[in-house]
Amino acid sequence: MSLHTSRKKLALYLSLGLILLTAIYFTLDYFTRHPSTDDAYVQADTIDIAAQVTGPVAEIFVKDHQHVEAGQVLFSIDPRPFQIAVDRAQANLDAQKSALVLATNNARRILTLVKSGQESKSSGDLMQSQLDSARAQLAAAEAQLAQAALDLEHTRVTAPRSGIVTQFLLQPGNNVVVNNTLFKLVEQDYFWVDANFKETQVARIKSGQPVKIVLDMFPKHVFHGIVDAVSSASGEVFSLLPPENASGNWVKVTQRFPVKILIQDPTGHFPLRAGATATATVDTTVRA
User: Fold this and answer.
1) Which residues does residue 206 pair with via DSSP β-bridges, in sequence order?
2) How far apart are alpha carbons 149 and 155 in whole angstroms?
3) Does residue 204 have a pLDDT over 80?
4) pTM, entire model
5) Which of 77, 113, 121, 288 is least surrounded, with the fewest CB atoms within 10 Å of its CB?
6) Is the pLDDT at 113 greater than 80, yes or no?
C-alpha cells in the first residue's frame, strides 16, 4: 500500500469521525433544547354528580358513557313527597297571610282606641307585638315554601356542564342520599397534559413554550400544546410516604417535576380521553 493511499484513507477516517462527532453533538444539543418525557397523562375536569335531595330514583334519561349537554336532565327522583311538602307549605303561607291581615286590622283598631283614650298604652304595645309576630311567621312561611319548591325542583337532576357521563350505575328504584356522589361527568372542552420531567430538564422549561404531544392511542397524530405552569415541588413531596434519607443508606434518584401543558388543538377526529398516556416534547428554544 502506497503512502499516498494510506494518507487518503486516514483523511477519510478523520472526516468520517468528524462528521460522526458533529452529528452526535447536534443530536445531544437538540435533545437538550427539546426535553421530552413519556411520563405524561391527559387530564380533564371531572364533576361529581350528587343529588340534592334524598329519595328513590323514578326515571333515568341517560346511560353510561353518553355525551350530555349542560342543563340536560340525567335522572329524576320521585317528586310526590316533595309536591306534598309544597302544597303543605302553600297552605301554611295562605293561613299566615290571613293571620297577618287579621292582626293588622286588630292593631289598627286598638291603636285608634289608644289614641282616643279608650284603651291603655299596654294594650297597644301587646297588639303591636302580636302584629310583629304575625309578620315573622309569614316570613318563615314564605321561606318554607321557597325551600319546598327548591327541593321539588331538585328532584330533576341536570348536567351542570356538557361532557361524558361515566361510572353511571343508577337504576330506577335505587334510593339516593343527598350529597353522596353517584357518578362523574368528564368535561370535553378543556384538556391538558400532566407531564413529569426530570429535574435535569426543568431548568429550561418556561411557561408559554410550545409543546408537541403524541398520544399512545394516536401515534401518528401530533397535538400542539403550550406550557402553562411548572410545579415548584417534585411529586415525592406530595406522596403519602415521602422518602426518609436521614439514616444515610440512600440511593440518589433523579426526581421528576410535574409540568402542566394545555392542549390547544383538540379535534373530534382524534378524541381525547382523560388518563391517556402521552409523550410531550418542549421546544425550549422559544423564549416565553
Assistant:
1) none
2) 10
3) yes
4) 0.73
5) 121
6) no
**Three cell numbers written together for 85:** 311538602
Rounded Cα distance between 227 and 209, Å, is: 5
SS (H, E, C) the chain: CCHHHHHHHHHHHHHHHHHHHHHHHHHHHHHHHCCEEEEEEEEEEEEEEECCCCEEEEEECCCCCCEECCCCEEEEECCHHHHHHHHHHHHHHHHHHHHHHHHHHHHHHHHHHHHHCCCCHHHHHHHHHHHHHHHHHHHHHHHHHHHHHHHHHCCEEECCCCEEEECCCCCCCCEECCCCEEEEEEEEEEEEEEEEEECCCHHHCCCCCEEEEEECCEEEEEEEEEEEEECCCCHHHHCCCCCCCCCCCCCCCCCEEEEEEEECCCECCECCCCCCEEEEEECCCCCC
> 381525547: which residue's cell?
272
Closest alpha carbon to 128 in 149, 143, 141, 114: 114
Cell of residue 81, nine digits: 313527597
pLDDT digits (tens, 9 = 90+) for 65-100: 999 999 999 999 999 999 999 999 999 989 988 887
Instruction: Write down the CATH number for the domain with range 80-154.
Output: 1.10.287
* Residue ranges of domains in the chain: 80-154
- Residues 56 and 173 sit within 8 Å (Cβ to Cβ): yes
